[in-house]
Design goal:
It is built from twelve helices and eight strands. With 365 residues, it is α+β, with helices and mostly antiparallel strands. It has two domains: 136 residues, Orthogonal Bundle (Globin-like); 150 residues, 2-Layer Sandwich (Heat Shock Protein 90), CATH 3.30.565.10. The chain is elongated.
């Protein structure tokens, strides 16, 4: 007398065909192709056959594979709802039992129990993966929407800042206090929008968008952008960068990390102080140091310095996100961002990106 696993092996293709027809009739009405509909079900049946055969021979249960998980992801991408996903496995169970009856095979209690357990496990795995993938998809869409809004806000804000600068040069600003409030408010908005764009980028699953980057030029551009607030505090900034071959980096992420470090340095350095930015690259890593003159870190702050919404000093004009974003940008390249305190003098932030995390540009000469 045939056993259930022998029926499955002999009638595998027929079971798949009858299951597909039943699914089309009950759920789909010809909405997907045969290849899409079949998906991982044949492999799932093979796993079931193997389990029933090994159970019959007394062998150990095989380790579960990911056929059900892949099936769940594929069904999400085809637009199936969870009810239809679960219903598919119910239809498969019915088709299997009908195939066994057509061969006058009555599954034993153990076979029926194994069949039910495997199908239940398949349903749970498929639905769990379906839900996980859907959640990831919702996060991606949310991040894309977030980034789009931030990007659209940035352009009119830049126009407002440009207009304000023109008014400054022409002496058309309102009384001093109101003008300062306007300038500071626009700067904070610009800072928030730029950080929002970088948070959205770091939150995405995409890796760095690498391009040829001249590290020294990038540093100098960041310093120029920070020169106005530095000049207001009479802070001098010095750049020391040895000759570094252009590297394959994500310029936006690296620039964002550096800009956050330099802005912080300007913000906390005492008036009349100096900021030193040093960059070098050897066979092991690219290293960039930003040393400020803030007088040193408050006790106990070094451990929480990179925690979002935590600020080291008494100045609360920012959002406490800059260092967290900077660390995320560097870690996105496989590197690290650390800090060491120089009590009474200041602190030094160190960017380290392993050379395997960057790619030196190959010269064509």
């Amino acid at each position: 007398m045939l056993r259930l696993h022998e029926v499955l092996a002999a009638k595998r293709d027929q079971i798949v065909a009858e299951w597909m027809e039943a699914v089309r009739t009950q759920l789909l009405h010809d909405l997907v192709s045969n290849v899409e509909l079949r998906d991982h079900i044949p492999g799932f049946l093979d796993e079931l056959t193997t389990i029933l055969r090994r159970q019959h021979s007394g062998g150990p249960l095989p380790a579960p594979t990911d056929s059900a998980a892949k099936h769940g992801v594929q069904r999400l991408r085809l637009g199936f709802d969870p009810y239809s996903l679960v219903k598919e496995y119910g239809i498969l169970r019915k088709v299997i039992l009908e195939a066994s009856r057509s061969e006058d095979v009555t599954p034993t209690f153990e076979e029926f129990d194994d069949l039910s357990e495997f199908l239940t496990s398949g349903i749970a795995t498929a639905v769990a993966q379906y839900a996980e993938e859907r959640e990831a998809e919702l996060r991606r869409h949310s991040q894309e929407h977030f980034a789009f809004i931030a990007h659209e806000l940035r352009n009119p804000l830049m126009s407002a800042q440009l207009a304000l600068n023109i008014m400054k040069r022409q002496g058309l600003l309102p009384p001093v206090r109101q003008g300062e409030v306007l300038n500071r408010s626009l700067d904070r908005l610009a800072d928030l929008i730029e950080r929002s764009l970088n948070i959205a980028l770091l939150g995405s699953e995409a890796g760095p968008n690498r391009n040829n980057v001249d590290v020294r030029l990038l540093i100098e551009e960041v310093v120029i952008e920070a020169s106005l607030p530095a000049d207001e505090k009479k802070i001098q900034m010095f750049v020391e960068a040895a000759s570094i071959e252009p590297l394959e980096l994500d310029p936006r992420l690296i620039s964002s990390a550096l800009a956050n470090l330099v802005r912080n340095a300007v913000k906390f350095t005492h008036p009349g102080g100096t900021i030193h930015i040093h960059a070098e690259c050897d066979e092991e890593a690219l290293r960039i140091e930003v040393a400020d003159a803030c007088g040193g870190l408050p006790p106990g702050k070094i451990d929480t310095l990179f925690t979002p919404f935590v600020q080291a000093g008494n100045d609360r004009s920012g959002f406490g996100l800059g260092l967290a974003i900077a660390r995320g940008a560097i870690e996105n390249h496989g590197g690290s961002l650390s800090v060491y305190d120089r009590p009474g003098l200041g602190c030094t932030f160190v960017i380290t990106i392993p050379i395997e995390g960057v790619t030196p540009r190959v010269s064509n000469s």
